[in-house]
Write a structure and sequence with these properties.
Blueprint (H helix, E strand, L loop, with lengths): L1 E7 L3 E8 L1 H18 L12 H8 L1 H24 L4 E6 L3 H7 L6 E8 L4 E3 L6 E6 L5 H13 L2 E4 L10 E10 L4 E13 L7 H7 L7 E7 L13 E15 L5 H7 L5 H31 L4 E3 L3 H21 L4 H4 L5 H29 L5 H11 L10 H23 L2 E6 L14 H18 L1
Parallel strand pairs: 6-13
Antiparallel strand pairs: 1-2, 2-4, 3-4, 5-12, 7-11, 8-9, 8-11, 10-11
Length: 464
């Protein structure tokens, strides 16, 4: 088989394929034999139809079309194999089928053209000594005291309050009912014998502070303004009045903060050792978070020093990966994925995800190319150790260990390559929160940001 190659844009290879005369005859004869056994012609039994009858009844054009359809795919596959073309994805016939039908003569050579996507050629710029900015997460000693306080409260003993009014940190047992400022009863804002912990963040702040100072048996109307971010949007920022009856009052008796408590709450013998272990834990968490920010900054910067003419096949695959991740995410939230991802919305969603797909691919290609150039490899020992760590977490799942091994290998190589780049980067650490966009909530974590982006993508698709 004669094959001529031509490099095209978007990492494609054009193939001009010449099929020999014996092959064009072979597929033509196969088409006739197939029709002989499958055609329904009155007066003839299947499998017993003479060749001449098939030619007369079916016509040469139909037979040639069948032969041509059968011929093209194996011819392309043979050409790819013969020329060792690293094809990815499906091929495309670039020749016009009707034109091929006109030129197709059994026993004569047939030339046609096809296009296949191939892995892109990756060109790297300077990737050592990268100058990046990353947010530094600083250890805050207050975290230690907050942690110890939370643990003590979990082990607290609840005792009745005698001889005083309600104060912050108490537990108030109340009956309450709420109405809007215009007197309209608030649906769901009624309860009896309800425990309210009188602490910030545990309940509506105005109601908590309104109960402080009440005595058991007292009834009070408390003016409340619902927070602007209240989950029930129809109540957000609304003024209301709650009628509250304080029926009982309790307080938390915290265990003494001493060596005995440390032994009960931890594996340490002294309070000093226990406290020091918590300090170390939060310091390590701060360092780990800072390192993750540096790695993320380097990964983002990799887009700037890599050039690759991405084939559509890879972009399509990565786009579908993003959509599948979104679908899994929404499924975990209990949402009906089938209603969100429809034939009407998916095309727009794919369009919206395309930019992220291109970015992800460039990062992946940059990391893989650097690993190859610098000889960064993953050892069998590292792979086995990681699989031993992951497999117990997947107990009960139908796991393809070969695919898992491939994924782990790729992930470990990425980690090692990014660490290699980090060791050679010029990193400027800046205060936490200073690199976030002005309109982004400082407390919004990566998962929430990803969720918001996914919702935006779906909302825009549905709006179309």
């Amino acid at each position: 088989m004669k094959v001529t190659q031509e490099k095209l844009e978007q990492s494609r290879i054009g193939l001009q394929i010449e099929v020999t005369g014996d092959q064009t005859t072979k597929y033509y004869e196969q088409a006739i034999r197939k029709l002989t056994t499958s055609a329904n012609i009155p007066g003839f039994r299947k499998g017993k139809i003479p060749r001449q009858v098939i030619l007369q009844r079916m016509g040469q054009s139909q037979i040639k079309a069948m032969a041509l359809e059968a011929l093209l795919e194996p011819a392309i596959n043979e050409a790819i194999k013969q020329e060792t073309v690293p094809a990815i994805g499906n091929y495309q016939i670039s020749s016009n089928f009707d034109d091929l039908l006109q030129t197709y003569v059994p026993g004569q050579t047939l030339t046609f053209s096809a296009v296949v996507d191939v892995p892109p050629v990756v060109t790297l710029g300077t990737y050592t000594g990268l100058a990046v900015k990353a947010e530094e997460v600083v250890y805050d000693p207050a975290q230690v005291e907050d942690f110890i306080d939370r643990q003590r409260r979990e082990k607290a003993t609840i005792i009745p309050v005698v001889g005083r009014a309600a104060q912050l940190e108490d537990i108030a047992v109340v009956d309450y009912s709420g109405k809007l400022a215009d007197g309209t009863a608030i649906d769901g804002a009624q309860a009896e014998d309800f425990d309210i912990e009188l602490s910030e963040g545990k309940f509506i702040s105005d109601l908590v502070h309104g109960i402080v100072g009440m005595s058991v048996g007292e009834t009070r109307n408390v003016n409340v303004v619902f927070p602007e971010d209240y989950p029930r949007e129809e109540l957000a920022a609304q003024a209301a009045i709650f009628n509250v009856v304080l029926k009982d009052l309790k307080e938390q008796e915290l265990p003494s903060l001493d060596d005995d408590y440390a032994k009960e709450a931890s594996d340490f013998d002294t309070l000093a050792e226990y406290r020091e272990s918590i300090v170390t834990r939060f310091q390590e968490q701060a360092k780990k978070s800072t390192d993750q920010n540096i790695i993320a900054a380097i990964e983002t910067a990799s887009i700037d020093f890599v050039e690759a003419d991405l084939p559509e096949t890879l972009i399509e695959r990565e786009t579908m990966n993003i959509l599948n991740q979104m679908a899994n995410q929404f499924s975990q939230y209990g949402m009906d994925v089938n209603q969100l991802f429809t034939r009407e919305t998916i095309p727009k969603m794919k369009e919206n995800c395309r930019t992220d797909a291109v970015k992800n691919l460039k990062q992946q290609l940059a990391i893989a190319e650097i690993a190859q150039k610098e000889g960064i490899v993953v050892t069998d020992e590292e792979i086995v150790a990681k699989m031993s760590e992951v497999l117990p977490q997947l107990a009960g799942e139908n796991v393809d260990e070969n695919r898992l091994r491939s994924y782990i290998t790729e992930d470990l190589q990425k980690e090692k390559t990014l660490e290699w780049l980090k060791e050679r980067a010029q990193v400027e650490l800046v205060p936490e929160g200073s690199l976030k966009p002005a309109d982004e909530d400082e407390d919004e974590d990566a998962a929430a940001a990803g969720e918001a982006e996914a919702i935006d993508i779906i909302a825009e698709a549905v709006a179309e």
